[in-house]
C-alpha cells in the first residue's frame, strides 16, 4: 500500500520500530512542553499572530486555507525545528502547498485504486507520482535542516526534537540493531510535520465553514466568549471548563466532518475470530470510524450538524464513548492533547476578534466534502473576517 511507503516513522510502522519511535517521540514532545503551560503559551502567541494576519484581509473575501495551515504548522515547527516561520516565507508556503496537495491526492479515487492494487504504482502514470515527488521534496528539506542541526548541536543543551533525536543516534551508534538512524529521523519529522499541521488546519477550515452555514450556532459561541473571556485578554485552556457550548461545538465539528473516516491501516497481531470470521495474524485491517461517529443510536440524526449531540438536558457538556475523532486504542493519535488545545484556542481567539461573514447566503453553502477517501476534504469557500 502507498501509505506504507514511509515505514520508518510513527504512522505506518509497526512492531518494535513503532514502539520505540512512538515512546521516544511522546517523551520528547512532552519534554518540549506538550500538555504543559509552555506549549499553551506558544499556541496563544501563534493565535495572536493568526489574528493579525486575518486583520490584513481588511474584511475582504478570502480563502482561509493557507492562513489556517500556517498557525498549527508553526506550533509543531517550533518543537521540531526550534523556530516559527513568517506567514509569507517562501519555503514555508512551498512545504504547506505540497502537504495540502498530498492530502487531496491521498483521498482521491485513483489512490484508493493504487492502495488495493499496488502493482499499478510501478507501471501507470497518475497522481501517485506527484504524491511521491512531493514527499521526496519535503524529505530533502528535512535533511537540510537535520544537517544544519548536526553542525550546531550541543549535546548537553538540545533545542528541539531534531537535536534530541541526533543525541539518541549518537548514543545508539554502537548498536547494530538500532532504529535511530537518519532515515528514521526524516520520516518521524515528516509524520510530525504532516500530522501536526494538516489535521488541525483542515478541522479549523471545515469548522469555520460549518459556522458560516449555521450562524445561530456561531452567535451562541460569541455569547459564551463574551461572558466567560471578554475582549481584553487571550483565551486560555482554563476557560474551557466554563464554556460547555463551545466545547460541544468543537466536538460536533470533529464528529460531523469525520476527518479520517477509516483511520490508518492496522494489522492483527495474532490469529483472531471476530463475529464468526477468522482473521489470520498479519492481516491488514481497515476500520470504519464513520460507523461510530455517525451511529444514530448515540447521535440522533447523525447527518445533521447539532452541538446538542454533546450537551445534556441542562446544557452541560456531555462526553461520549463514541467520540473517536482521534481514533482509539494503543495507536490513538499521539498529538491528541496538542490538537485539542489548538482547536480550542485558535477557534475562540478567531471568534473573540471577528464576526464571520459568508459571501453567499448561508443556506446555499455546501458542506459536502469534495473528496472523502483517506481524508474528508472540505470544499473551497470564501469568508470575510469582520473585526468585532
Automatic annotation (TrEMBL):
GO MF annotation terms: heme binding; iron ion binding; oxidoreductase activity, acting on paired donors, with incorporation or reduction of molecular oxygen, reduced flavin or flavoprotein as one donor, and incorporation of one atom of oxygen
Presence of the UniProt keyword Oxidoreductase in the record: yes
Gene Ontology annotations for the cellular component aspect, listed alphabetically: endoplasmic reticulum membrane
EC number from the UniProt entry: 1.14.14.1
GO biological process: organic acid metabolic process; xenobiotic metabolic process
Primary location: endoplasmic reticulum
Sections of the chain in a coiled coil: none
Top-level lineage group: Eukaryota
InterPro entries linked to this entry: Cyt_P450 (IPR001128), Cyt_P450_CS (IPR017972), Cyt_P450_E_grp-I (IPR002401), Cyt_P450_sf (IPR036396), Cytochrome_P450_fam2 (IPR050182)
Cofactors: heme
A Pfam family per the record: p450
Membrane topology label: Peripheral membrane protein
Gene3D superfamilies the record matches: Cytochrome P450
Keywords attached to this entry: Endoplasmic reticulum, Heme, Iron, Membrane, Metal-binding, Microsome, Monooxygenase, Oxidoreductase
Residues the entry annotates as binding heme: 333
Broadest EC class assigned to this enzyme: oxidoreductase
Compartments (UniProt record): Endoplasmic reticulum membrane; Microsome membrane
Family: Belongs to the cytochrome P450 family.
Name by which UniProt lists this protein: unspecific monooxygenase
Natural source organism: Sciurus vulgaris (Eurasian red squirrel)
